[in-house]
Amino acid sequence: NQIRKHTDIPIAVGFGIKDANTAKAVAGCANAVVVGSAIVSIIAKHGEDMPTAMAKVKSLLREIKDALDNSESIQNIA
User: Fold this and answer.
1) How confident is the model at residue 34 (pLDDT cuts 50, 70, 90)?
2) 64, 23 in Cβ contact below 8 A?
């Protein structure tokens, strides 16, 4: 809310988004969530087995998408 007092452009948050719960919590005050480090961590952990890494990344993103799709607190922007 403090940031919104100074701008009307969409706000994206990308620090600490590691799972569906954190994405959903941030969606209540931001227009977008950015997932980066969580994906990099999965790839680093499973990089030798790319099919597993890809499956885990897809699963994470599906969980986040489902949480956001079912969230009543998401900020809608035009």
Assistant:
1) very high
2) yes
Which residues, including other chains, have CB under 8 Å from residue 66's CB and lie 6 or more apart?
20
Mean pLDDT (the chain) is 88
Lookup: tokens for 39: 């994906």
Residues 47 and 44: their CA atoms lie apart, in Å, by 5
Q: pTM score, two decimals?
A: 0.78
Structure tokens at 68: 């956001």
At residue 41's C-alpha, the angle toward residues 38 and 42, to 5°, is 90
Q: Which residue has the tokens 């959903």?
A: 24
Angle 50-69/20-27 helices, nearest 10 degrees? 30
Give the sign of the dihedral formed by CA 41, CA 45, CA 47, CA 52.
negative
Q: Are the CB atoms for 68 and 33 separated by under 8 Å? A: yes
